[in-house]
Amino acid sequence: MARQLSYLAEKHGLLPNSQFGGRPGRTTEQALLVLSSAIDQAWYKYKVVTLIAFDLNSASNRVTRKWITSFMSDRHANIGFDDFRTETELLVHAGLAQGSPLSPILFAFFNADLVDQPVNSHGGASAFIDDYFRWRVGSSVEGNVAKIQSEDVPRIEEWARRTRVLLRRGED
Prior knowledge:
6 helices; alpha+beta; five-stranded mixed β-sheet
């Protein structure tokens, strides 16, 4: 199911080009190359690059259930180590199953509208699974920060409110 969904997403261009991780052939190195290329191009033109980074904390638990009810329903878990094991209990607010091959592609759809921003000479956005980067290119740090604060942060915070995702700014 994961391979089929991933294949269809790539074939029909359903996900932003600047979204990496959980997709075939889209590695951490490629995500960093997009950013380093933008920095190189800006510096070549004597411009300044300003970046804001967020970790989408607990985001996989926020993926809307209506997308894939059977995958996210009736999940149980227990905790075990050495000879100790707890009773198996129902996970009431289970999100995407970490380690499932289906979870990364489902998460890519979940945050696609956050990541879907043009990458051009004025800035861009990129994500690797739950790590999101937004950068601005301009003639001064002050100008870039003003745009980030007036345009980007409100857009990111609105997305986080709508999806109920907690944001951690560059703490990793």
